[in-house]
Design brief:
Blueprint (H helix, E strand, L loop, with lengths): L2 H21 L5 E5 L6 H17 L3 E5 L6 H8 L7 E6 H9 L7 H4 E16 L8 H10 L5 E4 L5 H13 L4 E4 L3 H10 L4 E5 H9 L4 E5 L14 H4 L7 E9 L4 H15 L2 H10 L1 E3 L4 H22 L6
Parallel strand pairs: 1-2, 1-3, 5-6, 5-7
Antiparallel strand pairs: 3-9, 4-7, 4-8, 4-9, 4-10
Helix pairs in contact: 1-11, 2-11, 4-13, 7-13
Length: 321
Amino acid sequence: MPLALRALAALVAAAAGLAWGQAYPSKPVKIIVPFAAGGPADIYARVIGEKLQAAMGQPFVIEDRPGGGALIGTDAVAKSAPDGYTLLMMSNTHTVNESLLQNKPYTLLKDLVPVAPVNYSDLVMVIHPSVKAGTLQEFIALAKANPGKLNYASSGPGTPYHMAGELFKAMAGVDIVHVPYKGSAGARTDILGGQVQMMFDAITTMAPNVRAGKLKALGTSGKARSTVLPEVPTVSEAGVPGYDAVIWLGIMAPTGTPKAIVDRLNAEITKAANAPEVKKAWAEQGAVAMSMTPDEFGHFLREDIEKWARVVKVSGAKPDQ
């Protein structure tokens, strides 16, 4: 094809993509959350969905499809039409699964494209009041004196709660049994009831139980103390130097989604997450808005995949444990 014709074809394609992006959305958009209702992904998907609906003039419907360590809902999005009308609310569960699960029906950065990050928040390590430990150091000593006798709950294999526990075990040198649940709600219910002894949970959802004295907080998982529970030391300063694990959320779309649509969604999601009233509410819950371009978010995802691949290897974490 002559150079002039190639240039004309490129201009036509660009114009078509721009028009498509400007016309989008013309019908309701579905955001699939591959986790149980009531957890951080579900809660924050609804916040973002409401903001997007107000800004873009069409309903953004949140659909929870938990199961399979986030595989069921994620695979549904990966196999959806790449037209911007089916989106995925994802988390670092997905970057962990790239190395933890060997037979997934999709490959994250092959079958899905990065749209935008949403936010991140610290986790908090809590124990049931019946556990004879008042500090992290005392809990570590108890675990070392009773290898394989204490357990910790998570919302399922590969979730941030699971990997936070595995990272803690590896760095603290303790043997604690992982008890996976089908969602964070079940894990939360059982630690409150004393069926399990320990759990890493999102500080956004667990802080009220700590304040009410229903559970004891031994440490928060970030690099600095949380503004939500400032009296609780970080795990790093309380006895496991260098420990750092958070939960973050983001939006992806099926590969092939037009760039104009991805760019518009990125702009609107970034605007929604950084709206003053949203940032204020999230700060009170311990969540911090994240802002990146689609390319920057893709780079972030690749780095996180590599980070958790190292943790999976060192900890020996298995998808069925």
